[in-house]
Design a protein that fits this description.
Blueprint (H helix, E strand, L loop, with lengths): L1 H28 L2 H8 L3 H7 L3 H13 L10 H18 L1 H11 L9 H20 L9 H23 L4 H12 L6 H6 L6 H8 L14
Length: about 220
């Protein structure tokens, strides 16, 4: 069991180091050597877990997907808001999520698969909006697939602008603005009036998660 625990810690250390390098340098400029130096593990330890830089990038993307858990809400549109707000909050607080976003937005390479993160998020929104529609929260004209893809695209643009202008310092405010102007076009007025669209919504949602997310320890082990 101790050996297995050590292997898990080593893998996490490598993924976190890879995330830091991808976030700082992008996929193409990042090297296995730099990731090894950052993780302070042996080449053998790294290649035991990952066969290539592309596999490392896919692992970073997969790790951030696991951070997208949302507590269930009676109001499904609030759940949709909280998903975006939580992601915005984690762009400010979680280096791994920032790295995953840079990988997904990097147009200079087709590696790793950049389609996956966008499609998975759109699919999650499809499910949430379908549940909202079933509960009578949406206006009659709403086309769920179109709205899902619009939200994903708008969020991508908003976060890119925030990163360029302020290094994500204002991303939660910008996402709150996105919600404030978008939701009146899809939500039933009575539901809209009850939604919490505040910039602090992501932090509130993160604090609700059980167990709360904690940074992966940086202790390396070979």
């Amino acid at each position: 069991m101790a050996k297995q625990d050590r292997a898990i810690r080593t893998r996490r250390t490598i993924v976190q180091a890879a995330a830091a390098v991808f976030q700082e340098q992008g996929y193409e400029a990042a090297t296995i050597l730099e990731i090894l130096n950052r993780a302070q593990v042996t080449k053998g330890a790294l290649y035991f877990h990952f066969s290539s830089k592309e596999e490392l990038a896919q692992a970073v993307l997969a790790e951030q997907e696991g951070r997208a858990r949302i507590p269930a809400r009676a109001c499904k549109l609030q759940e949709m808001v909280d998903l975006s707000a939580l992601h915005a909050h984690r762009l400010q607080t979680d280096p791994l999520v920032r790295a995953a976003m840079r990988l997904a937005m990097d147009q200079r390479t087709n590696k790793p698969d950049r389609n996956g993160p966008f499609r998975q998020w759109a699919d999650a929104l499809d499910d949430t909006l379908s549940a909202a529609d079933a509960q009578g929260e949406l206006l009659p004209h709403v086309r769920i697939k179109e709205v899902s893809e619009l939200i994903v695209g708008a969020f991508a643009g908003v976060q890119a602008m925030s990163q360029a202008l302020t290094g994500y310092e204002d991303v939660t405010q910008r996402v709150a603005q996105l919600h404030r102007y978008l939701l009146p076009s899809i939500a039933v007025p009575a539901v809209l009036a009850a939604l919490d669209l505040s910039p602090g919504r992501g932090a509130i949602t993160a604090a609700e998660l059980d167990p709360p997310d904690t940074p992966i320890a940086a202790t390396a082990s070979t």
